[in-house]
Amino acid sequence: xxxxxxxxxxxxxxxxxxxxxxxxxxxxxxxxxxxxxxxxxxxxxxxxxxxxxxxxxxxxxxxxxxxxxxxxxxxxxxxxxxxxxxxxxxxxxxxxxxxxxxxxxxxxxxxxxxxxxxxxxxxxxxxxxxxxxxxxxxxxxxxxxxxxxxxxxxxxxxxxxxxxxxxxxxxxxxxxxxxxxxxxxxxxxxxxxxxxxxxxxxxxxxxxxxxxxxxxxxxxxxxx
Length: 224
Prior knowledge:
Order of helices and strands: EHEHHHHHHHEEEEH
Radius of gyration: 16 Å
Shape: globular
Number of domains: 1
CATH class: Alpha Beta
Number of helices: 9
Oligomer: single chain
Distance between the termini: 20 Å
């Protein structure tokens, strides 16, 4: 069972997942829209695809998904990879560990860093695998004490929690993103149904339906 505190949405997500990038953007946007920014917090937990699949997530898959998901939420921050190919992140474990470590400073700090790291990867083509890039992104976050975050990363005290989240996700989460609410309900990739035309990495994803209004209901239920 995923236990969720009141006024909280627990989100299992990989920081390099385009569907999760759109979902977190929608959570932030709709939280502002319904006036719950001071009420509902997001507890973003790792759904590390590379550990589930025992390989880096293939760039060809992410490129196809980025084009598809980017048309759903163009304001989230997207671009096709612009940096040299050798700078493409081979792992997203370090930034997810940083998001977990930032929870020492509160969920507001953690969710701000999570959002900034997603934009750095998908919208700015930055190699968020790198410690220096993570800390540079953290410098742009008003709620992050970068020295405290650096200490947490250097002694690895958030790493165990990341693995624990992966193990919990194995039991309860269907994929990235998967949301859990205080009332015991949950929803995977809210409002979106899609399929692949051809195999992942060769074909392309097709969105069959997309209803972002579900986020208003998710947030109101979290507040209730």
